[in-house]
Amino acid sequence: MKRNPWSWIPTLYFAEGLPYVVVMTVAVIMYKRFGLSNTEIALYTSWLYLPWVIKPFWSPFVDILKTKRWWIITMQLLIGAGMAGVAFTLPTPFYLQASLAFFWLMAFSSATNDIASDGFYMLALDDSQQSFFVGIRSTFYRLAMITGQGLLVILAGGLEKSTGKVPFAWSITFFILAGLFVAFFVYHKFALPRPASDTGKSATTPGEVAKEFGRTFASFFTKKGIGLAIAFIIIYRLAEAMLVKMASPFLLDGRDVGGLGLNTQQVGLVYGTVGVIALTLGGIIGGIVASRQGLKYWLWPMALAITLPNAAYVFLSMYMPENFIWVNVAVAIEQFGYGFGFTAYMLYLIYFSQGEHKTAHYSICTGFMALGMMLPGMAAGWIQEQLGYQNFFIFIMIATIPTLLLIPFMKVDKDFGKSKKKEEKLEIEQTEN
User: Fold this and answer.
1) Which of 328, 432, 286, 365 is CA-nearest to residue 118?
2) Other CB atoms within 10 A of residue 240 CB
3) How many CA within 13 A on the CB side of residue 288?
């Protein structure tokens, strides 16, 4: 039975993005409220990127064993279990070690879900649909991220205020998340289509699996332009990798240390309302314009859109506005730019993954993407504590330069990403051959 992509793409990518933002960003805010230092927070939470970095090493098994559909629904159930584990352990004296352990379980399950979801996307949609929905999937993925650091944080902040108990408030929040992922598991069990191409490979013995695994990696690292592609994937989000770790601590920290002194609910509000609208507009507009004129045409504008709006945080750190409206305006500018600019990044990953092992190759690309987020993020807290918030955000702007220097060297087929073009299909087939 053929299903309308609108019935499953939004929920699939919302469910893919939510555990990622919980592990990477909500955990930052939560540990900040528990009293950890910026250096500790950045170091511990950046290590949680590791499952996304190394996921290419088990992505061939997702490609070979079972169907992508089976992996998706199974991993969503395990993510729910990880959420419940965090909820149970937060009120305990050993909350840090225990919650980190469950975050690791959640991270590995989420990374595996990413492999299956992205592969399923490429199997269930034709080339034109992939181009059209790349903005939609990016928007709902990012919408999940904003929901996590917006609505969930508002909820936790409200519970903090009403109960006066920080651990209890965050424990209830994670119990709600656990229930949500059980609901995702049930819905996707029935809503996801069953594409004919979604089958495990014929390899069944350990030797055959190992051989297929080796072929997958060899075919990726022998692609034309592999060095430049890896550099682009790692560097494109260099500035964001550091900004995302320190944005929420900056908003939460007191003015005496250079922060804006917002409370938990205000931080959730600025990301969960204005941020959502700006991000949604940026992502949808990015997908529409890319489908009309292609990735090559929009690569430069989108690279500028994802880098230059980071200056909004320089403004906030310099002028320290007390009017909450200015904070919302600055965040809206940064979020719109991110939503628009991230479209080019996602399209490039799809473009470079084309070929026989597109699912595994895409996961290898996202593994390098995670590495590009993990390493700078680990150092972000220490750098901020050495420089102070204002100089840190100026340093972030300097970190956007390598991305812009790399763009002129990128080679992309001129029609890739255009919808309803026969030429696109021909070029992709030539790339695969």
Assistant:
1) 365
2) 25
3) 6
pTM of the model: 0.74
Q: 1.20.1250.20, 3.30.70.100, 3.30.450.20, 1.10.3720.10: which CATH number matches 9-190+227-432? A: 1.20.1250.20
Ranges of each domain in the chain: 9-190+227-432
Q: Among candidates 95, 117, 90, 88, which has minimal Cα distance to 18?
A: 117
Mean pLDDT by 10 residues, the chain (433 residues): 79 92 88 90 89 80 81 94 94 92 93 86 74 77 80 90 91 95 93 79 62 79 89 92 90 92 88 79 86 86 92 94 93 91 88 78 85 90 94 96 92 68 39 32
Q: Which residues of 247-278 are buried (b: 16+ CB within 10 A; e: fewer)?
A: bbbbbbbeeeebbbebebbbbbbbbbbbbbeb
